[in-house]
Design brief:
The chain is α/β, with parallel strands linked by helices. The chain is built from 7 helices and 10 strands. The strands form 2 sheets. Strands 1-10-9-6-2-3-5 form a 7-stranded parallel β-sheet, with helices on both faces. Helix 1 packs across helix 2. It is globular, with a radius of gyration of 17 Å. The two termini are 14 Å apart.
Length: 240
């Protein structure tokens, strides 16, 4: 795990964004694993600008998002599909046929998990996986638990996650369940970049980097990945 502490969220966005740009320049049909949330936004701005300036084209990439809420229409303003459309996909030249999401409304979660795993494999596997980290150490929606997961599954969100995200929901209650990629699916990515900013992430970052590999801090498994970069601001790194 390569840990870098940077001054601002913008610097983190530039650094992570440039990793994505370089991946796509080296392999125009790269497979990108993408995350939602507040922390990735400067990275997505950077990628959108690089595309607008003509420095990179995303027309041949495939994307796979980490997670999606259950019991929320795909078109709802708070779905992760809408989030990605507004914050990245509408600003780059990605082909919408190559954009992949877990279906949070699939009637059979296990079949949906198998479908997603097969699609990732058909695309050739994820070249670069983007991650944030939850205050409780979750990655994607792999919440702290007694064991690590493998492929995608339906998860009941913890109170900590609901508390951190319910401010975004003003018309319907925040969903209690989500479909998420598993830890195994994340670990199979060839390269991983995790970003964390702010004091609210300091404990989770400490447990991830200094603690044992333990499913009660799902992000701690990333220490076992051969090519994982962690980009932090000083607040997120303040307990290290
Ligand atoms: C989002 C996701 C989550 C977030 C995490 C941090 O797709 O999988 O694990 O990365 O909850 O979210 P922010 O960046 O909003 O603090």
């Amino acid at each position: 795990m390569k840990v870098t502490i940077l001054k601002t969220a913008q610097e983190i966005g530039r650094t992570a964004g440039e990793m994505f740009v370089q991946t796509v320049l080296a392999k125009p049909d790269a497979v990108l694993g993408l995350a939602t949330g507040a922390t990735p936004l400067p990275t997505y701005d950077y990628m959108a600008n690089a595309c607008k300036e003509g420095r990179v084209s995303f027309k041949d990439v495939s994307t796979f998002n980490l997670d999606e809420y259950c019991d929320l229409p795909k078109s709802h303003k708070n779905s992760y599909f809408t989030f990605m459309t507004e914050n990245l996909f509408s600003k780059i030249d990605v082909n919408s046929a190559n954009v992949h999401f877990l279906d949070g409304n699939a009637p059979d979660a296990e079949a949906e998990s198998r479908r997603y795993a097969a699609e990732i494999e058909r695309a050739g596997g994820i070249d670069i996986q983007f991650l944030g980290i939850g205050r409780n150490g979750h990655i994607a929606f792999n919440e702290p638990s007694d064991k690590f997961t493998n492929d995608a599954f339906k998860v009941q969100l913890t109170e900590s996650t609901i508390e951190a995200n319910s401010m975004y929901f003003d018309d319907v209650p925040m969903p209690r369940f989500a479909m998420t990629m598993g830890v195994g699916s994340i670990m199979r990515a060839k390269k991983i970049v995790l970003v964390a900013t702010g004091k609210s992430k300091a404990e989770a970052v400490f447990a991830m980097i200094k603690g044992d590999i333990d499913p009660h801090c799902p992000a701690s498994i990333l220490k076992a990945h051969p090519d994982c970069t962690v980009l932090l601001d000083e607040d997120a790194a303040s307990l290290l």
